[in-house]
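User: I'll paste a sequence; please echo it back and then give the predicted structure.

Assistant: Echoing your sequence first, then the prediction.
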Amino acid sequence: MNVVELIHQAIATKSTRFAFELLPPLKGDGTEGISAAIERLMPFNPAYINVTSHRESLKEECLPDGSVHRHIVRRRPGTVGISATIQHKYGVPVVPHLICGGHSRYDIEDALIDLDFLGLHNVLALRGDALKGEEHFTPHPEGHAHAADLVRQVMAMNRGEFVDGEVEECHQSAFTVGVAGYPEKHADASSAEEDLLHLKAKIDAGAQYIVTQLFYDNSRFFDFVARCRAIGIEVPIIPGIKPLATVRHLTLLPQTFGCHIPEELRREVEAHADDKAAVRQIGTEWAIAQSRELKAAGIPVLHYYPMGKAENIIQIAKAIF
C-alpha cells in the first residue's frame, strides 16, 4: 500500500498513525545502529518510515606546500540501499528522499529506476540544502533548481517519459510523491505568500501529500493548513515533530530550521539549563502535548524526527499511540 492510501485510510477510520524519519548510516558504519532504532519503534506500528538523502560536501586539506586540496565527500551515502533493506526486513513502506542538490536529471532518473526495481514506490521530493559555504542553493548544471521540477520528472516517469525521450512503449512506474511544507516559511522565500505559491506549484506538478518542517507552536501549523486550503491546496498535510532535547536547541533549531520557540518552552528550558536530563524531559513532554492536540484535531499521521535518537520518540509514542 502506498503512503497516500495509508493516509486516506487513517482519515476514513478517524485514526492517527505513527511515522518517523531515519538518517542513513555514516559511511563505514553497518546497519546495526539503524536496525536497533527501528526494532525499538516497531511496536508502535509505523505507517511508514522515511529515509533522508544527503548531498556531497567539500573537504579541504592543507598540503605540505601550503596549497589547499578540495575534494568531494559523501558522509551518508546509501539512501536507496538502506531503504530497500528496511522495507524488505520489516514489511513497512519506506519513503526515501530524493533531492535536487548535487544531482543531474540523469542521476535522478537512474535513482528512480533503481527504486522502481526494488519495489520502493514512495518518495519525498526535496530541493535540498545549499553546499556548506554557499550563500544560496546552486543547482547541478543539468539538474533542477526547484522541487516542483523534481516532482514533474517523477510524474513524467510514471507516464513512461524519460529525460531524453529515448524509450517508447515502456513499463510505467507508479510513484507516490510527497513534498515538504513550511509552517513558518522557507528560509529562501521572501514572504509567507511566496512560499505558499511555491508549495502550490509542487502540488500542481503532481505531489500528493505534504510533510511539514518541525514546529513547536501548534497554532502555527493550524494556521498554515488554513492558508493552504485558502489557496486551493487540498492534499493531506502531515505535521513534522522533533522534541527539543538540549539547551543549545533554543538557538540552533531557529537558526537551522527557522522555527519559533514558544516563550513558555524557552523559559522552562532555561530554568533547568544545568540539568541535561530535565531539559530533555521538558522537550519530550512538550512534544507529547503537541501530539495529543494534533491527534485530537483528527490529524491522520504524526511524523517524528528522531535524528538518530530513539529514546524520546519511544516515550512520546508510548504516550500517544
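The first helix runs from residue 3 to 12. Strands lie at 17-22, 48-51, 57-62, 68-73, 94-99, 122-126, 176-181, 209-214, 237-241, 301-304.
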